[in-house]
User: Fold these one by one.
Assistant:
Number 1:
Amino acid sequence: QVQLVESGGALVQAGDSLRLSCAVSGRTFSGSFMGWFRQAPGKEREFVARISWFAGSTYYADSVKGRFTISRDNAKKTVYLQMNSLKPEDTAVYYCAATYYLGRPTVATDYNTWGQGTQVTVSL
């Protein structure tokens, strides 16, 4: 069993930066992708970014491309989401997810394991 624990969420001002962390524990992860999703109140859980665990290739939602960067530290078994130029519309609970999917996972149902989420609030 793989466990994911997000951290780093905070209340920040528009234009600020924030880095979220996702620590992977349990048995060594042998999946394909790690992803970040977010969900605002009353809205669907939406894809933010993903990274291939082995190749390190990344993919971003259009809404965050150029502002967010997903990365990983294999030694620390941690995935990060660096968020710059934050906007109020980025306010949401951010979730880390893992999958063994062999395609191009960009929807929540493509992912198997989820963290508990961390709140990010961006004020004007």
Note: The first strand starts at residue 2 and ends at 7.
Number 2:
Amino acid sequence: QVQLVESGGGLVQPGGSLRLSCAASGSIFSINSMGWYRQAPGKQRELVAAITSEGGTNYADSVKGRFTISRDNAKNTVYLQMNSLKPEDTAVYYCNSKIRLVGDIWGARAYWGQGTQVTVSS
């Protein structure tokens, strides 16, 4: 089984910064894309940022220029550097990763972390 362990969430003032991390563990054969989603109360879950195995990235328009996604393949970890945070960024942030396990006859599938709360408030 795969576990995605997230960390780095918390309370920060507007204009502040946080760095989220998500480490995947298990009998992993390979990891394809990795990304971050968020869900605010009363709203649908939305893609924040994603990164491919080759390093290609894409971002939601609302976070471009403020957030940066990166990955460390040796550690099976994806990061989200969040700068110039706004109250509108308040949400539960979820790690998502497309992973193929050793011996998985179905190939890669998507896995989710448990979510970490990010609150931007003064």
Note: The mean pLDDT is 96.
Number 3:
Amino acid sequence: QVQLVESGGGLVQAGGSLRLSCVASGRTFSSYNIGWFRQAPGKEREFVAAIAWSGISTLYMDSVKGRFTISRDIAKNTVYLQMNSLKPEDTALYYCAAVPRTLSAYLGDSARSPNGYDYWGQGTQVTVSS
């Protein structure tokens, strides 16, 4: 089991940048695939990005490719979501999530579904103004 805490959200102007952090307690990130999801009011939770337990496989939602980067710092047991060129449509509550690793070092399609994760943080708010 793992506990997740997100931070780094805030208010930023369109075109600006933010870096979200997800800090894990319990087992290290090497034991889990980690995903970032976001949810705007009245909308379903949607996939943003994910990184495999191995660190060699990543996935991104089409609308954030080239703008967002997911990474990890093993020494700090932290996964980051670097968000550049932010747009108003990026405004949402952002969550990190974890699911135990499989025998594969790579992410599959299940990594893009919120139902594919077992553990969730409380979320951090990102608001992008125009």
Note: The first strand starts at residue 2 and ends at 7.
